[in-house]
Amino acid sequence: MDDWTTSHDRVLAQRNAEGWIFLLEAARDLRTTGAVAPSSKALARLLTDPVQEHGTRPLNVLEAGAGTGSVTRTLISRLSPGSRLDIVEANARFAAQLRHLVGTHPQLAGESERVRVHHALVEQLDTSRPYDVIVSGLPFTNFSPTQVEMIMNRYLELLHPGGTITYFTYRGTRYARALTASRAEARRHRAVEEVLAGYQRRYATGCWTVWGNLPPASIWQLRGPARASAPAAPDITAGVAS
User: Rounded distance, CA 113 to CA 102, Å?
Assistant: First the structure.
């Protein structure tokens, strides 16, 4: 058996293991896991494109809701020399797996201190570091509208002036909840979408769809204000973003 075959088989085994871990954690707590499968490569690339767009300049990057690390691996591969990555994950099992990923990643050999894993909620992250790019994998439509407001405002507080936020939402979840969930859950879901739409109208610079993801997902890219200021609550009564 050649080295390529051995390596390929190892990668496939790792992906299968991650899929099972994701399913187990989703069964334990779908509200915080938010999905039934790790993010696809296409979704990971779009979420992390702003990191690569900065070229070789050292960056401060934050990833929130990293799960099993499917997006984290793409982030690490795209970090320029001297860049630092903070990873925030609320699930203890995922956080432990992410620490193992960081400690064994070949691109971080001898400099794993560039990447830190925080077992915490992003709202509680204790840092004074401004981030050039924030990549969010949090399941917003599983939260309350108030929680989403808190998280988005925290992102804007942590963002370097003119920095970029990327996040994704799954397509069709409103209709699925309307058919399967209670009226209260459906109202909560609509309210969360309205909160996110307010930030999209104010800050969005692009939106793309990854149909090959499970389930299909929309990736949003937001650009923070050029000057640091306390973010105001978005006007969710304005027109729908194009």
Answer: 9
Residues in the chain: 242
- The type of residue at 69 is G
The pLDDT, as a whole number, for residue 177 is: 60
Q: In order of start, what are the domains of the chain with their CATH numbers?
A: 37-223 (3.40.50.150)
159-214 pLDDT per residue, tens: 999 999 999 998 866 555 655 668 898 899 899 999 999 999 999 999 999 998 88
Mean pLDDT over residues 26-43, rounded?
Answer: 60
Confidence of residue 37 (pLDDT cuts 50, 70, 90): low
Quick one: CA dihedral 150, 201, 168, 116, positive or negative?
negative
pTM above 0.70, yes or no: yes
Cα separation of the two ends of the chain: 53
∠ Cα 220 221 225 (to 5°)? 135
Residue 238 tokens read as 């304005």
